[in-house]
Write a structure and sequence with these properties.
The complex is a heterodimer of chains A (457) and B (433). Chain A folds into 2 domains: 206 residues, Metalloenzyme, LuxS/M16 peptidase-like (Cytochrome Bc1 Complex, Chain A, domain 1), CATH 3.30.830; 188 residues, Metalloenzyme, LuxS/M16 peptidase-like (Cytochrome Bc1 Complex, Chain A, domain 1, 2-Layer Sandwich), CATH 3.30.830.10. Chain A is built from 16 helices and 13 strands. In chain A, helix 4 packs parallel to helix 9 and helix 12 packs across helix 16. In chain A, the strands form 2 sheets. A 6-stranded mixed sheet of chain A has the order 1-2-6-3-5-4, sandwiched between helices. A 5-stranded mixed sheet of chain A has the order 7-11-8-10-9. Chain A has 457 residues and is α+β, with helices and mostly antiparallel strands. In chain A, strand 9 and strand 10 form a beta hairpin. The longest helix of chain A has 20 residues. Chain B is 42% helix and 19% strand. With 433 residues, chain B is α+β, with helices and mostly antiparallel strands. In chain B, the strands form 4 sheets. A 6-stranded mixed sheet of chain B has the order 3-4-10-5-9-8, with helices on both faces. Chain B has a 5-stranded mixed sheet with strand order 12-16-13-15-14, with helices on both faces. Chain B folds into 2 domains: 198 residues, Cytochrome Bc1 Complex, Chain A, domain 1 (2-Layer Sandwich); 180 residues, Cytochrome Bc1 Complex, Chain A, domain 1 (2-Layer Sandwich). Chain B contains 16 helices and 16 strands. In chain B, helix 1 crosses helix 7, helix 10 packs antiparallel against helix 11 and helix 12 runs antiparallel to helix 15. In chain B, a hairpin with a 4-residue loop joins strand 8 and strand 9. The chains are: A alpha+beta (457), B alpha+beta (433). At the A-B interface, helix 1, helix 3, strand 4, strand 5 and helix 5 of A face helix 2, helix 3, helix 4, helix 5 and strand 11 of B. Strand 12 of chain A pairs antiparallel with strand 12 of chain B.
Amino acid sequence: MVTVSPKSLLLALLLVPLAALAQVSEFELSNGMKVVVKEDHRAPVVVSQVWYKVGSSYEPEGITGISHALEHMMFKGTERFGAGEFSRVISALGGSENAFTSRDYTAYFETIAVEHLERALELEADRMRNLILDPAEFAKEIAVVREERRLRTEDKPTGKVYEQFNAVAWRASPYRNPVIGWMNDLEHMTADDLAAWYRRWYAPNNATLVVAGDVQPEAVRDMAERHFGDLSTSRIPALKPPAEPQQAGETRVQVRVPARQPYLMMGYKTPIVGQSKEPWEPYALYVLSSVLDGGESARFSRDLVRGSGIAASAGADYDSYSRLPGMFVLSGTPTDGHTVAELEQALRQAVAQVRDELIDPAELKRVVTQAVANKVYEADSLFNQATEIGVLETLGLDWRLSTTEIDSLKAVTPEQVRTVAQRYLVDDNLTVATLVPLPMDQQQPRAASSAGGRHGS
Amino acid sequence: MAVKHGWVLLVLLLAGGLVQAGPSVESWHTSRGAKVMFVHAPELPMVDVRVVVDGGSARDGGLPGLSRFTNAMLSEGAGEWDAGAMALRLEERGIQLGSGSLRDMAWISVRSLTDADVLAVALESAQAVLASPRFDQDAVERVRQQLQIGLRHSLQSPGTVAARRFYRTLYADHPYAHDPDGDDASLAKITVDDLQRFHRRYYVAENAIVAIVGAVDRKTAESIAEQVTGGLAAGQHAPPLPPVPTVSGGELHEAFPSSQTHIYVGQSGMSRHDPDYFALYVGNHVLGGGSLVSTLGEEVRNKRGLSYSVYSYFSPMRVDGPFLMVAQTKNDQAEQALKVMRDTLERFVEDGPSEDELEAAKQNLIGGFPLRVSSNAQIVEYIAMMGFYDYPLDWLDTLTGKLAAVDVAQVRDAFRRRISAPAGIAVIVGGNG
């Protein structure tokens, strides 16, 4: 069996961090807005992202989903540019744009030819402070948001499981609420609610601008000063520190909806980067998730999909970067002839194994090698490069963490992996959600007219 | 003049528009007859290789799902390595292997660092995956289950059910009629012999395109192409597909336990070499192709708040792919949404776009061209597609000029000839149907 030569690892390690470090610049405008520029001169293109420190985890009960609803309304016009004008201007410049909202952030982005970057910044700066929240526009847009919720959650069995899973796993953490909001809250939300939310959070001192692409940092600084520099600041309220009470026993929930396939989610509450007992814990948890599910050679594929054949698919998911502690999530679908209960037992056994036994050093080596290669591959995407910086900065972490990740992973030992499994992957800390399929037998095709009749060939 | 990323920026005054040369594409054939498309991208120490064969679900014959099943088996053991051993030798070197299939094409993709030892293993593996899949019985049964379960999972979505019904209705007994996912009965009866026969027929050099993008020079690219296809028989190109049938319009309703109704309205569209390609493509960008700016988006979403995701597209394929308008809305608004979609299309066919609308769409498509070829991942897909559909090597260079040349009269003329309301099929799935 051939192993990776030290030379190749060294080569990749040398190339990536050097390139990455050399090309990132950061500065702060006088009003407190942070700007990070990552140079990539491969093509005359730029990605511009404005990140706000607000998302569903900032929302009190009753107005869940308001950050996402506001994101929709950000395309509905300011005093200078009417509804839809933002999109029309960017489109006519050949750009593409959109936005996304998560638990911890809301971000707006444009991908555009580099000569039009300034126009994009001008438009973003304008809607940072001058949005019009017209009640008539809001009434239509919140209907669109409710349709989005129907599409992504109401009519999607696995989406419903995910929502219920979070709702029961978290007792106090705002991560219990869906990013898109509960339907009831979307039905009672008003334009005034959004106006207050907008005033509270949309300000230069609560935002980060990330620009990645064929730009010079000095030019970006000048443009940013010109357009964002004069925007007034807001007093950003300090959030009360939320603390999830210690879970003291397994939690279970069933979701019974029309479906064709059972589905299982299991989550253990885990620490994150910046908020762990010991700084290596999140990296050990990342290694653990890759040992279980870091490709077709990882344990779940090897033992559960190919070996016992209990799982049609099985995954492990751990996000080490978030504002509040998250979960180490296992999920899967059993094969025909096996039950969700059997799959759950198999996943529990896989977890017990990492609690009891050290992982093989070869597994650890494979995880690190994949991470090194992925860093190179990620550099092919401007958008991912910008997003990595935006996420870290918005969470109050340093973007440089992305350049030291590999070193942190390389420092993880098999003992540390076993330790995090013993500390966190325990039954008292577990939430289990299962999808119990109900029949979908309402389906009776009917033809209303002469569809499908064939003429000629 | 700056030259970077194989980019040559040329500013020519042509048709009043900016003409940009794309990445410079080189092409040749391997000794066994596979066509190679290559772009040199020296900046990152990595290489992407994509091998595409004319072996999509249009070649399934009487066994829907056969193409996808065969394609899925490629990464389940090849040559001297079973599924686990193959996965391990790739992943312990950070090599990524992917595969997929649609109606026209099936492919594998490999992404590797350019380090010589790593790349050698990537290429040796790719050769085995393409030429010597094992079709081990246990792997076949495992993948059969995964495909059946994947199919059932996708049928939990009313949108999937509607799309499948739309294609079935539009294409009748044409090979485009069935979904690449196949159906449960067919997946159940496909044998190892069927898989091997399909593989032997379509995974051959004459039927394959090799696309390469990365930090390798021409000479290395030539040896990469030879090696990857080194195990393939020369074989023959797949035969031409039959023309698509003419089907009358109508409405099909289907109940589904859902809060939303999914609407698919459309008809036969265009092929990859269609004489109306650019007029229809640019026209549709006005109608429903722009992501946040389009006539359908304005009428259905912005003005009325009926739908989150509303759009239209032509899916150009080897022979005429469909033209489709898609939306989804809560069940009691389905009729209203369908009417707005149809009225919008009818007005568009009748009047065509305005000068301003067309100009804005062209600006978006032309100005956005550099964005669509800015990463190796995008370029390798583009050149594989160009090779597959026999586009000329300067296709990317001439693209913006062709977009710029489209005018309102051409769009209106093309839509009037090609899109007629009576031929439209509407599939409506959700609620009580």
